[in-house]
Specification:
The protein has helices at about 20-25, 30-40, 120-130, 165-175, 260-265, 280-285, 315-320, and strands at about 5-10, 45, 65, 90-95, 100-105, 155-160, 180-185, 195, 200-205, 210, 235-240, 245-250, 295-300, 305-310. By secondary structure, the protein is of the alpha+beta class. The chain folds into 3 domains: about 5-65, RNA-binding S4 domain (Structural Genomics Hypothetical 15.5 Kd Protein In mrcA-pckA Intergenic Region, Chain A), CATH 3.10.290.10; about 85-175, 2-Layer Sandwich (Pseudouridine synthase); about 180-320, Pseudouridine synthase (2-Layer Sandwich), CATH 3.30.2350. The strands form 3 sheets. Strands 4, 5, 6, 7, 8, 11, 12, 13 and 14 form a 9-stranded mixed β-sheet that branches. The chain has a 3-stranded antiparallel β-sheet with strand order 1-3-2, with no helix packed on it. A hairpin with a 3-residue loop joins strand 11 and strand 12.
Amino acid sequence: MIEKTLHLSIDEDHDGIRLDKFLVEQLGISRTKILAHIKQECVVNGANIPFTKGGIMLKTDTEVVVHPLPAPAETVDEETSAPDDSIYQYIKIIAETDDYLVISKPAGLLVHPSNEKQYITLAHWLKRTYPEIISVGEDKVRPGIVHRLDKETSGVMVVAKTQRMFDLLKTQFQSRTVKKIYHTLVHGIIEPDHDILDFLISRGVDGKMASRPNVSVEALSDVRKVQEGKQAKTEFWVEKRFINHTWLRVQIHTGRTHQIRVHMFAYNHPVAGDKLYIQKKLKEKDNAPRMFLHAAELSFDDIDGKRVTFVSHVPDKMREYINTLSA
């Protein structure tokens, strides 16, 4: 039993050790209990980012913080309005058919819960508003949900209302035939009007996604510089340049976790308002009121094979801030 928060640091003798093995050794409790702490996001790094897997390899000087498990949460009646579920009023229905629902998700709303403490999510709203789709999909925790947006990302999403549509959408997302367009404001002035980023993306030891420009192995000394990870492709067009920012139209051709945020960070032009993927010197100057990433367009084939496109306009809060920037 862990009764108080513990701070542990990885020394040279433990460089490369698995997280779960290290904690079992240091805390003297079972691996099952360790994994329970990880599942409930009670094991974080020095930046307070949760470790997601027990098999993550730790490096020297990594700080591991272990918090006690939270007390069992009280059962929440989803039909009863909670004080902070007012965010639901900002969910906009763009289109609806018998097969699918297209909505514009507000920034600040989780798509689905990752633990039992999270009960203000799009998934909960769907179950409350469309109880008939609870059995649609592969997981009742994510009814009808076949893709997601980060909590602080706003914009267009499609939700399946029938299993047939869910399966069709899943196939399209897997085959990368769904077209996804975003708008984003990034730090710095990007010179080329158009570019494609294809840096590989992987999960770092701290739980964050990581990427860097690809390196060709031309000498033995370059081997350590090669980025390991999954293929990812992000294409962008410059819409407008400001003194210290650039407004972009972005199309992602793959769907990796945090893809645009990670790629722009690796490109040295992080997304404005992003608290996670940003250089320290920029973070200190960043006064953006939210993360400036918005899913603007979504195109897919409907149940009859017809290509349909839906648009979510840039939120007022983003437009108002952009209007304060000098070109």
